[in-house]
């Protein structure tokens, strides 16, 4: 048996099955059906209802932020966050090439362009060193107090780093750099619910943090997202923009700007409330799985990615770094043929036709990781012993 065969049988043993093992399946072990029934009985299934308000309150509390606004999904939450950041069409937004497509798409919805900054190899998230050196090379502070890109003359309106697979990036250093250059920081924390940097929840370092509750995330409500902030004005505006910019009134329809129909429906919020109640249990279960992987892979030549000192990861998707691109391809082929679902990390955004002309800083680590990183099954295990 070589390392790949050993890995397949270890994962089958760990999940107690020889059947197909998905990458990440949702787990519904609590009040999901009860709350859904309550929603239906109340007839408040749509964007007004008690569960939406409850979820926002509970979610803000869980992440330690002052306000949360629930949206229909994480991508829309990012879109709203960027509007709130003041990003305009023709502006630039510093982000990662190594990320899920939603980050880059949301930037494009506004008509702004991404500029791709490299990541650190250990966190797989935006590198403060790379950001600092890009800004020292190309950043130009103008009299209006904002930073412009000297190569394009465009305003750098925001920075959107992403906590890859739930591993916290060096967000404190990054926040400091953004502050120095007066760049609005939005954290794409879609993957990092339950992840902390120095005991502070991810998503609370930026002026806005964004989360997703899609079917494959740590907790899910079918489709859903949220943004969090400590700024009451931003929270109010987020709620306004996500509800068609309707001026609250008992019977009249009045709107004062272009708004969006982005508010999370009560039906989804019912599911979200039930899932949030189980989050700590889900995180503990996933951590236990990660411990098993860690000890197993320490005997192989695969590097199992673990949380760094001073951070706590949610272990949403467990990740391996394989020795080479060839070995990665062989690993992907044989595990998937063997019924153990694995997948490579994303294609770099800078390699996609929509984004290939955008500026990047060379992306040395992003390219290195793109060739080697794979995800392995990471679901909650209901019968873990
Ligand atoms: C899942 C995800 C999103 C978007 O979430 P949706 O709810 O699917 O729209 C955004 N960014 C990252 C990094 C994600 O992983």
From TrEMBL:
<dbReference type="InterPro" id="IPR026385">
    <property type="entry name" value="LegC-like"/>
</dbReference>
<dbReference type="InterPro" id="IPR015424">
    <property type="entry name" value="PyrdxlP-dep_Trfase"/>
</dbReference>
<dbReference type="InterPro" id="IPR000653">
    <property type="entry name" value="DegT/StrS_aminotransferase"/>
</dbReference>
<dbReference type="Pfam" id="PF01041">
    <property type="entry name" value="DegT_DnrJ_EryC1"/>
</dbReference>
<dbReference type="InterPro" id="IPR015422">
    <property type="entry name" value="PyrdxlP-dep_Trfase_small"/>
</dbReference>
<comment type="similarity">
    <text>Belongs to the DegT/DnrJ/EryC1 family.</text>
</comment>
<keyword id="KW-0032">Aminotransferase</keyword>
<keyword id="KW-0808">Transferase</keyword>
<protein>
    <submittedName>
        <fullName>LegC family aminotransferase</fullName>
    </submittedName>
</protein>
<dbReference type="InterPro" id="IPR015421">
    <property type="entry name" value="PyrdxlP-dep_Trfase_major"/>
</dbReference>
<keyword id="KW-0663">Pyridoxal phosphate</keyword>
<dbReference type="GO" id="GO:0008483">
    <property type="term" value="F:transaminase activity"/>
</dbReference>
């Amino acid at each position: 048996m070589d390392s790949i065969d050993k890995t397949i049988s270890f994962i089958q043993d760990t999940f107690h099955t020889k059947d197909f093992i998905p990458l990440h399946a949702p787990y519904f072990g609590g009040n999901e059906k009860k709350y859904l029934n309550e929603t239906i009985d109340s007839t408040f299934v749509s964007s007004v209802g008690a569960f939406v308000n409850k979820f926002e309150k509970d979610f803000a509390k869980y992440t330690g932020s002052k306000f949360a606004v629930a949206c229909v999904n994480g991508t829309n939450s990012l879109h709203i966050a960027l509007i709130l950041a003041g990003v305009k069409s023709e502006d630039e937004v510093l982000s990662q090439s190594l990320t899920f497509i939603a980050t880059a798409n949301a930037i494009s919805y506004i008509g702004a362009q991404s500029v791709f900054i490299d990541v650190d190899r250990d966190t797989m998230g935006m590198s403060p060193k790379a950001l600092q050196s890009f800004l020292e090379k190309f950043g130009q502070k103008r009299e209006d107090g904002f930073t412009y890109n000297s190569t394009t003359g465009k305003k750098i309106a925001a920075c959107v780093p992403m906590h890859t697979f739930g591993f916290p990036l060096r967000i404190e250093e990054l926040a400091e750099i953004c502050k120095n250059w007066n760049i609005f920081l939005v954290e794409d924390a879609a993957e990092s619910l339950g992840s902390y940097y120095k005991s502070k929840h991810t998503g609370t370092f930026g002026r806005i943090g964004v989360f997703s509750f899609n079917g494959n995330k740590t907790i899910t409500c079918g489709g859903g997202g949220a943004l969090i902030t400590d700024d009451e004005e931003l929270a109010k505006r987020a709620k306004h923009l996500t509800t068609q910019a309707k001026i609250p009134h008992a019977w009249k329809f009045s709107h004062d700007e272009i708004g969006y129909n982005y508010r999370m429906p009560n039906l989804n919020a019912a599911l979200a409330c039930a899932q949030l109640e189980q989050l700590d249990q889900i995180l503990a279960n996933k951590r236990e799985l990660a411990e098993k992987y860690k000890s197993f892979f320490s005997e192989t030549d695969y590097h199992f990615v673990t949380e760094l000192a001073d951070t706590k990861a949610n272990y949403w998707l467990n990740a391996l770094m394989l020795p080479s691109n060839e070995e990665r391809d062989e690993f992907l082929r044989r595990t998937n043929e063997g019924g153990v679902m694995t997948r490579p990390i994303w294609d770099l955004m800078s390699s996609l036709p929509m984004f290939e002309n955008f500026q990047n800083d060379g992306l040395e680590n992003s390219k290195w990781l793109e060739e080697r990183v794979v995800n392995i099954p990471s679901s909650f295990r209901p019968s873990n012993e």
